[in-house]
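Hello K.,

You asked for the raw outputs rather than the summary table, so here they are, unedited. I folded two proteins back to back in the same session to keep the settings identical. This is the first:
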Amino acid sequence: MADQPARESMEYDVVIVGAGPAGLAAAIRLKQLAAEAGTETSVAVLEKGSEVGAHILSGAVIDPVGLTELFPDWKERGAPLETPVRKDKFLVLGPQGELDISWLPTPPWMKNHGCYIASLGNLCRWLAQQAEALGVEIYPGMSASELVFDEAGAVKGVVAGVFGVDREGHEKPDYQPGIELHGKYTFLGEGARGSLSKIAMAKYDLCAGREPQKYGLGVKELWQVPADKFQPGLVQHTLGWPLDDQTGGGSWMYHFGDNYVSIGFVVHLNYKNPYLSPFEEFQRFKLHPSIRHHLEGGRRVSYGARAIVEGGYQSVPKLSFPGGALIGDSAGFVNVPRIKGSHNAISTGRLAADAAFAALQAGRAGDELVAYQSAYEGSRVAKELRSVRNVKPLLSKLGNTWGMLAGGVDMMTNWLLGGFSFFGTMKHGKTDAASTGLAADYKPIAYPKPDGVLTFDRLSSVFISNTNHEEDQPSHLKLIDPNIPIEINLPKYAEPAQRYCPAAVYEVLYDETGHNPRFQINAQNCVHCKTCDIKDPSQNIVWTTPEGGGGPNYPNM
């Protein structure tokens, strides 16, 4: 690329990357504190989606505790939490039957009483309205593609809004070099496996002494069903079929809103069989007799997928670094057995804002917000994550049946004995990538063909996610070594990218004789789940923020 023109810069007190629950909560809290103190604090929020909520598919069970901390009067303000949980079911599925284990004793916080089924995208849109009313500047469609450092090596902001680069890296006539947004502090709230967060973790060694982060892939559909199938307030989770006992995962199904059903399936990404396809497991799951009757006669409205942070308490990195902090799922505050994280994202955004505002009031800038780390360690969030810290490693080590039982006992012990566990704090061990087994040790899985009624293929699914990238923009999916997919991953692992990607981004193509394989990347299909960055056994694929934007555009429902 030719010499770049000098970028313009904009100065703020705090720059926040990501308009998810954590980023918006942090922005709101900063403005609340400034109003209370009678001072001005400038805050900018950057969102890579075309609008706030565009990258968040509807349908989540939301614990309002984080929202209540931020806005005690959220009901009066009209927050879009409209469907209270009325029925809570937990099933173990076999190939044809089910076992209802909802009666098993669990700590009270494992129940969904007092929670709401809602569109997390709409909640973020509402939070954005509250933030803008307080004076926060929100910039949708502005991907933050680089960190900016000062002379001392501290983060001083980000580069955002690079447009007009073709797939070969050349500047087009409409080229824009982007702008630098400088902040006295920069918060990274990109969600799971954020590209800038990865850079910050590596540069400042934030994961030292922590267990490897763990992930699941959640594949999700939003349906609208007939009135006689709709059960408003129903929350149902399952374990078991179609996964075997050594492959972790499960499902959710939530009835909410205007006859909507949010249904999805999570596969823990430490699975071993390289022939497994999380997308196909989800499609197969919908055919179970206990599931299909909820959907029959309905229509599929949208589709999406995303990585879910599962490492929990022992994998949370150091949260502050010179000039900034990790908030929300950039750090990983999901409570795995509850399948909830938005409440903790809001809370950690608020805690980071408290620390940053105190620093600003003291005239500081560009240093470490150590008060944020201390606040987290003494918070409700840390206590919650610590109480379930062994559930994920027990599932990984003992399998689904014994792991579920041991994890349930451990949660009860933690609850009854104030955080004590007979297991101590267990380790995760391998990364998800390193957990992938060799193709020679497994057999290919024959998945049923989609019927176009209840089950579907990946390309038609990507279509209804409204995913869009410019035809000639640079691929945001980078190969460290372009030879590895064919020379290493194909013979050793049957190139699992063909199957773990839920959007048909990766293909192995052969010539007309069936020989000479080549690896093809269909980057325009990418729904930004980031599974490739996590699961590639050679750790050769790097997911980066797309220059020129793009990604899914989920419906406003």
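The second followed immediately with the same parameters:
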Amino acid sequence: MKYRTLAIASSLAIAAPLALVTAGAASAAPTDNPPVTLVDGTTAPIYDYAGAIRETVWVAAPDLDGDGVDERIATDIIRPGELDGNAQVPIIMDASPYYLSSGRGNEAERKQYDAEGNLVTFPLYYDNYFVPRGYAYVAVDMAGTARSTGCTDEGGRSDIESVKAVVEWLDGNGVAYDADGAVVDADWSNGKTGMIGKSYDGTLANGVAATGVDGLKTIVPISAISSWYDYNRWQGAVKSNNYPSSLSRSVAANRTIATDCSARLNFMNANDGDETGAYTDFWAERDYRDGTFYDVSKVKASVFVVHGLQDTNVKTMNASKWWADLGEQGVDRKMWLTRLGHVDPFDSERALWVDTLHRWFDHELMDIDNGIDREPAVSVETAPNRWEQSPTWPISSARTQTLNLHSDGTMMLGKKDRSTASYVNSASLSEANAVRIGANPNRLQFLTGTTKHEIRISGTPTLDLDVAHTAPVGQVSVMLVDYGAMDRISTAGDGAETLSTESCWGPATATDDACYNEVGKRISSTELQVLARGWARLDGAGDHEVSVELAANDVIVPAGHQLGVVISGSRNGVLAVDTAATTYTVDLSGSRLNLPVSGPMAGFGPGHVKPKNTENLRQGTLPDLDATVWPGN
């Protein structure tokens, strides 16, 4: 292969094959982008990782904890040394509350510093992979965590404004200081920032985008929250008591600056509204779709949404509603929906994910025309390792089919049943007992006939329910179940299994490598799967007409299966507000399942309930919904 020398900036020369394309000249890319070399349309690793500049600054943010002193937000930076003073670079940022608490990624990596306080280990692979390709990587400690001042705020203004201040500084509109207090300018930055992160990190990206801050060009929220109400609540049903303060206390673990945040934590406990489950001003502050301070109409950055369809931690409502609202605002967007739970695609589709993410950042931050914007916007894993692409989501062929409930336990298109059906509330009813085939006085169960053809459920099912009870406060739990044996992604470990083999994604130093354990999918044969769950609080005795929204999904139901709806007062996943043996009576004439489905409806008429082996469900069939979880790794 023949090589030629490419002039990079004014003082750097790199040998490169003639077949490669160099971007950086005015004819190839805008002049505010750094010189890069393209291989197969993507930036190649031409800058030295070991020799990269590593530095820490503390970005000034407004007083966010009410102590009268501006905050200092710890910001760790790594950027190509060869370009220092020669070219400005775009930034990939992961802002997080977890860098010194629970750590990041499947291997729970934490930031590590030498004796002088210099960062020597960046968690995750973003620095190793992208810095050699001409990007800076910035890891931000959210206010109240790690080496930043302030107090944590479970998605409130302190969280978001602390990270926003860093984006503004990178865009030339802020002040930062080094460890000695000297002012530091981001003169190496071209002002283009892309935020990425999983769970709380991705949630910060959503929130900062919803401020409309200049300089934020794209975000990649993975398993992220778009409304903290929809994380802590479900139609008035409460996840757990005092969760905001508990989470805020947890993420502040191991912080290096002793701070009394008791006032903030007490405020959360007094205002989180656990007693009613209502959407209040407290939650409006933490709503990035349509909140008091932040909302989707302000979003200027493009958005690449990534979510697991079996995520029972940050449930799919946070992604589906964000996606829909972004579309209504005309925001440039892309989406991946995997079949796993709360899992980063780096740990499920590693090679494909890194390649896709690389192309996305090249396009959004380097202005490289690599065609990713002309590919189908949505990729969905509808069954284990079965991917479908579409320009929109839910898919355009999905139509809402109405299935009516009948007193004989069937569920069908067309004919309504004018009678009623009842169950006796049991707050201790397990999900396993609720979904089993057979009579159970503590829940109602309705099944379709056997499907004659494969169908695809795509979107958000709802159950219109006309129900009466005599409790001061009642509750309903609804499950949509696919009955039929097949290979599925297990719920154990969110469907992911860490292997003994490793793969490496970039160069390394003695203290920071880019090698990570491979992760496989846990696939096992199960007799059933809960496709969607939903809950609703019913205030006051008497009759209630409620539409219970279930979690969005996109999944294949094979021929020969039956779909079921299970209605109970089960507390699985939320707190029980009715613990008595209250009778709940459902008026079947006013109750129906609204199912977004693509495919022939044959088999959705009356059918016989076929016996199924649901007595001894295999491990991994159902998740532990009552386990304490954080929106974390």
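The first helix runs from residue 126 to 130.

Happy to rerun anything if the numbers look odd on your end.

Regards,
P.
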